[in-house]
Structures are given as C-alpha cells and as structure tokens.
Amino acid sequence: MKSTPLFASVAMLALWVMQPTHGFTQDATSRARPSQPILMETAATQTTTGVVKSFTRAPTGEVDGFELDDGTTVHYPPSLQPAITAAVLKNNRVRVTGLVGPGLGTGTKPAKLLEAQTITNLTTNQTLELEKLLLDAPRATGPTQPPATTNPSQARPGGAPAR
Prior knowledge:
By secondary structure, the chain is of the alpha+beta class.
C-alpha cells in the first residue's frame, strides 16, 4: 500500500492531538495539591462588653450602629434606629452578642465588626433581641398618601373655601 501525503498529514495531526501535553487528557489527580487545607471563613458568634462612645451612620444618614470604647463597631439595620437609640445612649455600658467579622481599625490595632443579634444596656438592664424587633416592625408598603380633606375650608391655605 502506497502512502499519500494527505494520509501522512492526517495521521501526524491525529498523533499530535492525542498527546497529553495539552492538559485535556491529563489526569486531574496528577496535579500538585496544596500542602495546607483551604480554610473557608465562617461567621462566629461573639459577645463583647463595652461603653458606647459614638453612633455610626449609614451612607443615607440613618443611625446604623455604634462604636465601643475598645474599638468594636456594632452594626444593626437602620430600620431599628428608633428602638435602639431609645434604649441605648452614649456612655451607656452595653453587652452585645452577634456575628463577628473583621473591621477597618485604625493604626496598629485592628478593629472588630459585630453584626448585633442582642444588645443589653447594662445601665438599665434592658435587652433588645434584634430578630424579634425586625419581625415585629411594621412593613413598609410604599409611600403614604396624606389624608384626603373632606372639609372645603381645609382645601385651601388660609381657610378660604374652594370655589
């Protein structure tokens, strides 16, 4: 049998494609494995006690947390501002339990960020369970309309009746 140049080219191409140097045919278990296990970050619950030094604000201006004297930043949903600021004042000693994460910190002392679950004002012994507050909070249904006026004298400024 006489070989043709086209047959030889196709045979060479097939042999080249089948070589394991392209990474497609290599066994995935043959690759080097890291010597250290990969650690996944998980949220941890922590309790901390401190004195409220200042309140923090969300970018939209609502109070959404406070800073403790040890540098810990306590965060909560801005919708809970009325309940929390009524129960916790500046310079009150508090105990906060929540999910901990890294904070920004200043200088050489790293700070903690605590996503609050419960806040206890140790000055007044009042405890706020944030999940319960969120469940009990009225749901926003959209913009509210002012009540309709039924008295014509209320329809115009100055009390003059509408014509």
